[in-house]
Design a protein that fits this description.
This protein has helices at 2-21, 27-51, 53-65, 68-81, 99-102, 112-122, 139-156, 196-210, and strands at residues 106-108, 126-127, 164-167, 185-189, 214-219, 227-232, 241-243. It is of the alpha/beta class and 244 residues long. A five-stranded mixed beta sheet has the order 2-3-4-6-5, with helices on both faces. The chain has a two-stranded parallel ribbon with strand order 1-7.
Length: 244
């Protein structure tokens, strides 16, 4: 019972930290909160380990499937961002208006080299449908897609395999402040990978290859829409700048 109480406490801490992250906290404070969450997660696992190795393995697997403690943190923040504005002026509840897409933006035109790279990277993938909009992807996301593709090639042992991009800056099903609408994220199909262990390993390898600049979430596990959400980490890019 004590172990599960600690786990519930850990989840409560993560949720509280996520709520606070949308209330205009400084980067230093946010960093300290994230470190606190990581420490709490470690203590919870250490406590569980003393009880039963099986429970630890199950908990560790679940955490890993969601990108570790940081992945869980990022996912909750992403969810909270769909409810709260995070504008720095407090946690006022958003109105029903989709202000994100209506905000005037600065458009940066790719130079010839960047455009060629953008087109080359996209040629390595397949779009799920013509409605998938990837025209405004940032150069950093192009780089991420290139790395993701190389990992798929390694896992499948097939240099001709082309991952399927299921969403860019298109669907209206994302949260209002989703990185998708800032052209800083893509969803990539993973459900066609043969088994869950391989999918989990693939997601983790992509996280390792992309590094701390990016967030990789393994979403809708076991469901028809199972996919990888790959985005630039929140706070590392200007939402009001788009590329064409």
């Amino acid at each position: 019972m004590g172990m599960f109480f600690r786990i519930r406490s850990l989840l409560a801490i993560i949720l509280i930290v996520s709520l606070l992250s949308g209330c205009g906290l400084s980067d230093d404070t946010q960093e300290q909160l994230e470190e606190a969450v990581g420490k709490a997660a470690g203590e919870a696992l250490d406590s569980a380990r003393s009880k039963t190795a099986t429970a630890v393995e199950e908990i560790s697997t679940t955490i890993d499937e969601h990108g570790g403690v940081q992945g869980i943190f990022d996912k909750i923040v992403q969810f909270i961002d769909g409810i709260f504005g995070g504008s720095g002026s407090g946690c006022e509840e958003k109105t029903a208006q989709k202000v994100e897409r209506d905000t005037p933006r600065t458009v940066i035109k790719r130079n010839a080299e960047q455009q060629n790279y953008h087109e080359e990277v996209l040629s390595l993938t397949i779009l799920k449908a013509a409605s998938v909009n990837i025209d405004c992807l940032r150069p950093e996301v192009d780089t991420a897609i290139n790395i993701v593709t190389s990992v798929y090639h390694e896992v499948f042992k097939d240099d001709n395999y082309r991952p399927v991009i299921t969403s860019g800056n298109d669907s209206d099903k994302h949260g209002e402040r989703s990185a998708h609408y800032a052209c800083a994220a893509v969803d990539i199909r993973i459900k066609d990978v043969e088994n869950q262990n391989t999918r989990r390993d693939l997601a983790q390898k992509i996280r390792d290859e992309l590094g701390s600049r990016y967030t990789v979430l393994h979403e809708d596990i076991g469901m028809a829409n199972e996919h990888l959400h790959v985005q630039l980490r929140s706070g590392t890019y200007d939402r009001n700048v788009v590329w064409k």
